[in-house]
Prior knowledge:
Layout: H1 7-24, E1 37-44, E2 48-49, E3 53-62, E4 67-68, E5 79-86, E6 90-92, E7 95-106, E8 110-114, E9 117-124, E10 132-139, E11 142-147, H2 172-197, H3 214-228, H4 236-255, H5 264-272, H6 279-298, H7 307-317
Parallel strand pairs: 2-11
Antiparallel strand pairs: 1-3, 3-7, 4-9, 5-7, 6-7, 8-11, 9-10
Helix pairs in contact: 3-4, 3-7, 4-6, 5-6, 6-7
Amino acid sequence: xxxxxxxxxxxxxxxxxxxxxxxxxxxxxxxxxxxxxxxxxxxxxxxxxxxxxxxxxxxxxxxxxxxxxxxxxxxxxxxxxxxxxxxxxxxxxxxxxxxxxxxxxxxxxxxxxxxxxxxxxxxxxxxxxxxxxxxxxxxxxxxxxxxxxxxxxxxxxxxxxxxxxxxxxxxxxxxxxxxxxxxxxxxxxxxxxxxxxxxxxxxxxxxxxxxxxxxxxxxxxxxxxxxxxxxxxxxxxxxxxxxxxxxxxxxxxxxxxxxxxxxxxxxxxxxxxxxxxxxxxxxxxxxxxxxxxxxxxxxxxxxxxxxxxxxxxxxxxxxxxxxxxxxx
Length: 328
């Protein structure tokens, strides 16, 4: 009887051969291949308005024998450098992670861009043992969107349509009585004025509003605002609105530019090339204007009073008098 190879015997023999082949052949595992050095960037937080602080971070992941250098960054237009630093070194998957952070203050609205930044490093020379070579890798470009405070959608409760005009009959009799009262008051004022002119002149007259310096006028208006006590009765927006007007009026009287008509962005741009203020006072002025705008336009219910900041600014920005020259 012939030995006939059936399909079942063929399948069994193939499986036996495959099992022996797998037994004698070791399995190879795929090893994750990572770049010797790589760089990424990020900007926090996610959204920005004028005056916010943006944190720009460059993360460099590299082999232990590669040593990167902290890159120097020239801030682009719209960002003002504040400070920089390095996070503690981390280890992951046999590689080292170095993070370099930079803080910028936002002083322009719109789309701002930080271009690709070159990061230099030293690595072992593969051709000569014990020697190193210099290398460079680019950290990718990063962008941030800055919104204007005026574009923030707030509550529409304070906006109403203009009412139609209503006609009223003219009260001529009332006008007559008002005219007589005005004549009587004019006569009284004239009498008091003649009497005041005839009095002896005093050498210690209190200054009038027209003779007050910008600093004296601002302090007088701030004291009147404090006495109103609007923060204590919940009129937060009214308090910040008048505080902003007092500060803008002081800037206009002191530095001779239309601060009451300009926006915060226009005043900030004017101060960029203005030599009459130190950089610290420019930052504080922008901070005061920005914080008061937040309450005025966004209608925030909780806010820190900026009155002391305004008082401190006026004290430090006041001009030095002739009596103070030469004093220690």
